[in-house]
Amino acid sequence: MASADEQVKGDDAAGAAASVADVRELRQRSKPQKKPGTDAEEDNEAGRSPPGACCEVTDSIERVFESEPVPPWREQVTLRALVTSLFLAVLFSVIVMKLSLTTGIIPSLNVSAGLLGFFLLRVWTAAVKDPKRPFTRQENTVVQTCVVAAYGIAFSGGFGSYLFGMSETIASQAAEENNADNVKEPRLAWMIGFLFLVSFVGLFALVPLRKVMIIDYRLTYPSGTATAHLINGFHTPDGSERAKSQVRALAKCSVASFLWGFFQWFYTAGDDCGFGHFPALGLVAYQNRFYFDFSTTYIGAGMICPHIVNVSVLLGGILSWGVLWPLIAKKRGSWFDAELPDTSLEGMQGYRVFIAIAIILGDGLYKFAMVLFRTVASIAASIEKKKFFGALPVNSDDSKGPNPATATPPSFDDARRTDFFTKDQIPMRVAIGGYVVIAAVSVATVPRLIFPQVEWYHVLAVYLMAPVLAFCNAYGMGLTDWSLASTYGKLAIFTFGAWAGKSHSGVLVGLATCGIMMNIVSTAADLMQDFKTGYMTLASPRSMFISQVVGTAIGCVVGPSVFWLFYRAFAGVGTHKSAYPAPYALIYRNMAILGVDGFSKLPGNCLTLCCVFFVGAIAVNMAKDMVPEKVAKFIPLPMAMAIPFYIGPYFTIDMFLGSVILFAWEWVDKDQANAFAYAVASGLICGDGVWSLPQAFLSLFNVKPPICMKFLSRNLNDKVDGFIGTLS
C-alpha cells in the first residue's frame, strides 16, 4: 500500500499513530462501559451471546457442554494446535507489521485468530482422524491465545515505534541527538535476544493474583469474554455451521483482496505511481493528502472500528491538513525560517510532530488518571468490605472465600468454571522465581550485551516498578478493556531519559527502558485476559500459561524476522519516500529528545499550540464522560483525531468508506451484518496482508512492475508531452 507521503515530495512521513493499546481504548470508549458485578457482566457470565455472536445458545453455556469430557491440560496443548499456531502467527505478524510500519492503526484480530484457528483445526481433524483426540473448545482457545501472544510481539516489540526509533534512519530525520551514542542500527540477532530477555517477565508478574482478578474481583475483561463467547459458539452444534459460513466469507474476501493487491502492483513501477496515488478528490486535495488509495486493509479496518472512530480520524484529518497546517504555512518567515524544508523539526514538521504528541499525551494522561481512579476506588470499596488482598483467596485452598455463608449461591456456569479454573494451579514459587530469575538475567545482560548506554540500575528500577504498574494495567483492562501499555512506555521514556540525561545517551536509554516497560505491562495484562477466556471455555490455566509462553517465544523469533524481511526488501523503510514510513518511530524518538532537551528547539508558537491541544484533548474527554450517553456517543475521540495530524488523512477516507459500507449493510440486514461483517473485514485485511509477502520477495529478487500509472495536471502533462516530442 502506498504511503501518505509518496505524493508530496519533501514531506516527512512519520506520523502519530495509535498503538494496539490505543486502538483497544478507542474501540471501547465508543460504547458504554460495564462494571464488575453489573447486569452486563451477569449477562456475559450467564452465557447470553453479545450482539454479533455466531449463534444463539441456552441461558447456561456449560449445560450445553456438560456431557462432553474436558481434556486434561496436557491434551489441550497438542502438536496440531502448536503447528496451527505457528502458521497463523506468521500470517498475523506480517499483517501487524505492515500496519505498524504504515499508520500504526492495528484493529483487534482476536476474533480472526479464533475463527481461522477453528477452521484450520477442523480441516486437520477431518484429514487426520484421531478418535482419541477430538477437537475441543479448549484446544481452540490454546490456538487463539498462542497466536495473539505471537503477533502481539510484532507490535510491542517496537518495530514501528521505540526499537526502530533507535535507528540511524529515524535519528537522521529527528535532527537532534543523532550522535552515535544515541543510535543503534537494527540487527536480527540483537533484536531477537532483546525480546527473549524482556518479553517473558510480564507472564510471571501477576500469575499469583490470577484467582483474585478472575474469580474474586469478577473482572469482566470484555475482549476476553467476547472471544470466549465466540469459541463457545463455534463448538455448539449450530455454531459449527455458522462458523463454516463465516470462514467461507473470510476466504472469499481474502482471495479477492490478495488479487486486488497483485493487480495494483503492475502499475507501481516508479515513485507516486499506481492506484494508491489516485487523486479522486482533485490534485489540490491530493497535495494535502486527501485522496482514496484503494487500500482494502483500511476499508476492512473501518468495518471493524466503531463508527465514531472512523468519523474522528476523518475530522482530525480535516482539522489538521484542511485547516491548521495551511494556516501555519502562511506564517513562513514569521514563525519559522522560510528557507527550512518541510521535513525540519524547526519548521512545519515540528508543528505536525509535537501537536500530535500533545494530543496523544493529553488523551493518555486523562485515561491513565481515570483508570487509576477507578482502580483505587474499587480497591477502597473492597477494603471496606474486608475483601482486600489479605482476605482474598489466592489459591484453591481458599476457594470458598472469606464468608461463604453470606455469599450469593453461584450459578451452574460459575460453579463449573471455578472448579476447573482452580484445579490446575501454577505454583507460587514458579511465578515469583521465574520473575526474579528472568529479571536478574536481564539486569546482567541487557546493559552489557545489547545497550551499553543503559546502566544496570536503570533496568533494575524498571523491574522493581513493573509489577505495580502491571497490576494497575491488568486491573484497569479488566474494568474497561483499555490497556495502557503504551502510556506506561511513554512514562518510562521521560523518566529514565531525564534520569540518564543528555550527556549520557538519554535518548537511547529512554527508548530502551520504554521497550522493557511496555513488554512487561502488556504481556501481564494480555495473560490475565487470556485467563478470563480460558475460565469461560474451561481451558486449564496451565494450558493458557504454556500457550502464552510458546506464543511469546514464537513472536520473539517471527516478529524480528518479519521486520527484517520488510527492512531489507523495501527501500527506505522509515523514510517519507517509502511505502512503510514507520510513523510512530519518529514520534517516540522525538518524545525521548523532548525528555532530555526540553522545548528550546520548537518553532515559534509551537509550545503554545501544544498546550492548547493538550488541554483540549483533556477537555473533550471530560465532556464525553460528563454528558449523557446519547450525547457522548457523538463526541469525537481525541486519540483518533490525533492519528492523521501527522501522517495525513489519506487512510481516513478508506476507513470512513468501510464505516459507510457497514452502516449500509446494517441498515439493509442487521442480523447478517452482525454475523458476517467481522469475517468480511478480516478477509480484506488478511488478503492484503498476505500479498505483502510475495511483494517483499519480488522486491528482494529485484523484480520490477512493468507499468507506471501516474496522474498529472493538464499543464504539467502538456510539458511532458512536449518534452517527449523533442525526443522523437
From TrEMBL:
Chain ranges passing through the membrane = 77-97, 103-121, 142-164, 188-209, 308-328, 348-366, 430-450, 456-475, 506-525, 545-567, 602-623, 643-665, 677-701
Q: Which GO terms describe its molecular function?
A: oligopeptide transmembrane transporter activity
Query: Which segments carry the region annotation Disordered?
Result: 1-53
Q: Which UniProt keywords apply?
A: Membrane, Transmembrane, Transmembrane helix, Transport
- Topologically, how does it sit relative to the membrane? Multi-pass membrane protein
Q: Which GO terms describe its cellular component?
A: membrane
Q: Which domain of life is it from?
A: Eukaryota
Which compartments does it reside in? Membrane
Biased composition range(s): Basic and acidic residues:
1-12
Q: Name one Pfam family in it.
A: OPT
Q: Does the keyword Isomerase apply?
A: no
In the record, the note on similarity to other proteins reads:
Belongs to the YSL (TC 2.A.67.2) family.
- What is the name listed in the Swiss-Prot or TrEMBL entry for this protein? Uncharacterized protein
